[in-house]
Amino acid sequence: MEIRITTLSENTANYGYLAEWGLSILVEVDGLRILMDTGLSFSAVHNAQLMGIDLTTIDRIVLSHGHADHTGGLREVLRRRGEVEVIAHPDIWAPKYVRRDGETEEQYIGIPFSREELESLGAHFNLVREPVRITDRILTTGEIPMLSGYEEIENNLFVKEAGVLQPDRLADDLALVIDTDFGLIVILGCAHRGIINTLRHAQRLTGKELVYAVIGGTHLLRASDEHIEQTIADLKEMGIQRLGVSHCTGFHASARLAQEFEGIFFLNNAGTRLTLP
Fold first, then answer.
1. Residue 103 scores a pLDDT above 80
2. In what order do the strands lie in the sheet with 60-62?
3. DSSP class of 158
4. Which residues constitute the domain of residue 232?
5. Can you state the angle between helices 225-237 and 251-260, rounded to 10 degrees?
6. What's the number of domains the chain is made of?
7. Any bridge partners for residue 28, and if so which?
């Protein structure tokens, strides 16, 4: 079983590609092309063209959650792909906001398009809270339980309900899991509900303990040193063989992970191509 993973959009880029805050990863497995997230705007489409990737051949789109930096490129992708199933949690359509450090006003960070516009371009939304099994070996996590004890959702993220801001539980945060003979491959969007919570949930869903590869955003950008060290310990316990971090991981956490996972760690930038195992 060969899996090809291509990063179309990310905060940083390999030479010749366009960088943009956000994430979009193309997964090719079992004869399917699954696009995990679409980046912030046009970078995923731009880089796909540079890499010779035909977006009209995408079989599914999976949205990890409803923030603009993961969904803002959806309109451009649909303009090229046309009709396609889009798998996500119902809460992607919640009006999402952030209050950034030093700012008093909240900023809208939800999907920057209406559902009607995206459906007119061919999006067929499959919105469910439970895991979606795409094939016998490929599934989404669905809602991820908060079990680790040290991973928490940031307190500056909100949803607006009846005109009032409420803390966003990020119930829509999900990941893509590939169950292979050599271990689990987990593609993260942002891991707002915690990378370890996500991986343990994937283990429970599949009944497999070995996590072979973790690729994507780990949301350790603002994590404490204690949080990062506990994450490292838990990742080692899972037997990780490849660790490619992106987007919301942050420089400090990336540097610690690179130290602890020497030889298997890599920065998963726009333009990165990977074949597993």
1. no
2. 123-127, 84-88, 60-62, 32-36, 24-29, 3-9, 273-276
3. E
4. 3-276
5. 40
6. 1
7. 4, 33
CATH of the domain at 60: 3.60.15.10
Listed in sequence order, the residues at least 6 apart from 277 whose beta carbon sits closer than 8 Å to its beta carbon are 2, 3, 180, 182, 212
Contact 274, 4 (CB under 8 A): yes
How confident is the model over 24-82, as pLDDT tens digits? 999 999 999 999 999 999 999 999 999 999 999 999 999 999 999 999 999 999 999 99
Which among 247, 255, 274, 248 has a CA at the least distance from the CA of 19? 247
- Closest-CA residue to 250 (of 271, 272, 225): 225
In degrees, rounded to 5, the angle at the alpha carbon of residue 254 between the alpha carbons of residues 253 and 255 is 90
Tell me how long the chain is.
Answer: 277
Interval 129-141: pLDDT, tens: 999 999 999 999 9
Residue 84 pLDDT class (50, 70, 90 cuts): very high
Residue 207, helix vs strand vs coil: coil
Average pLDDT score over residue span 108-115: 98
165: which strand partners? 160
Neighbours of 262 (CB within 10 A): 8
